[in-house]
Design goal:
- The chain is an alpha/beta fold.
- It has 10 helices and 8 strands.
- It has an 8-stranded parallel β-sheet with strand order 1-2-3-4-5-6-7-8.
- The protein is globular.
- The termini are close together.
- Belongs to the metallo-dependent hydrolases superfamily. TatD-type hydrolase family.
- One of its GO terms (molecular function) is DNA nuclease activity.
């Protein structure tokens, strides 16, 4: 089996008491057949720190972006453009809209979201989108900014079947995290059954949102296997089939050469 954690924050893990270093994290993941990761940035300084922390590896690629919750201060859009063009940066983000925590930065969030999509279109790199309490505006900006030119994924999906359908109509992929395993997530499980297998990704969003049976612990890339196994049951297929499909989808969306993945197997 070959699994990909399509969204993790490697710079956010506990290297003081739980892991010796990034090598340790990736080794624990590999034991559970999680052999490739997308390390996602949430600020530009954070992106630089993560590149320094992780280094250049065959089994890790990066995104570059500024999270909607990090819009309290302005950032240099041209710097974002230059960093996003670096080697092994395969996506823009994490970007999007979050009106739940910081509605007061709504306008700045929207401007930043648009910048990310525009750079993604110019660089032919997909966008990784976060949305919370901003469904209508998120969909409107994706349409208006012609996101189909670069593609993208709605990560850590927590919306309903109808929203999933609208995203699929835009050519989007949809990524499910450990939330799908939570007891009160029946609406999310309904959406997971609905999303076609060829548009599905799995992720941890580590260090957050550890899946059942690890609730309350730090999430880490190794735990994407728990998400994948749970999703396989929902889809009525084997874990191996789910792993193969989501790995193929990941490679297609983020333009990862098949030879790179096969060399790791």
């Amino acid at each position: 089996m070959f699994l990909v954690d399509s969204h993790c924050h490697l710079d956010g893990l506990d290297y003081q008491s739980l892991h010796k270093d990034v090598d340790d994290v990736l080794a624990k993941a590999a034991v559970r057949d999680v052999k490739f990761c997308l390390a996602v940035a949430t600020t530009l300084p954070g992106y630089r720190h993560m590149r320094e922390l992780v280094g250049k590896r065959d089994n890790v690629v990066f995104s570059c972006g500024v999270h909607p919750l990090n819009q309290d201060e302005a950032y240099d859009v041209e710097e974002l453009r230059l960093l996003a063009a670096e080697d092994d940066v395969v996506a823009m983000g994490e970007t999007g809209l979050d009106y739940f925590y910081t509605p007061e930065t709504k306008v700045r969030q929207q401007e930043s979201f648009i910048h990310h999509i525009q750079i993604g279109r110019a660089l032919k790199k997909p966008v990784i989108v976060h949305t919370r309490d901003a469904r209508a505006d998120t969909l409107a900006i994706l349409r208006e900014e012609k996101v189909t030119d670069c593609g993208g994924v709605l990560h850590c999906f927590t919306e309903d079947r109808e929203t999933a359908g609208k995203l699929l109509d835009l050519g989007f992929y949809i990524s499910f995290s450990g939330i799908v395993t939570f007891r009160n997530a029946e609406q999310l499980r309904d959406a997971a059954r609905y999303v076609p297998l060829d548009r599905l990704l799995v992720e941890t969003d580590s260090p957050y949102l550890a899946p059942v049976p690890h609730r309350g612990k730090e999430n880490q890339p190794a735990m994407v296997r728990d998400v994948a196994e749970y999703m396989a049951v929902l889809k009525g297929i084997t874990a191996e089939e789910l792993a193969q499909a989501t790995t193929d989808n990941f490679a297609r969306l983020f333009h990862i050469d098949a030879s790179r993945l096969s060399s790791i197997r």
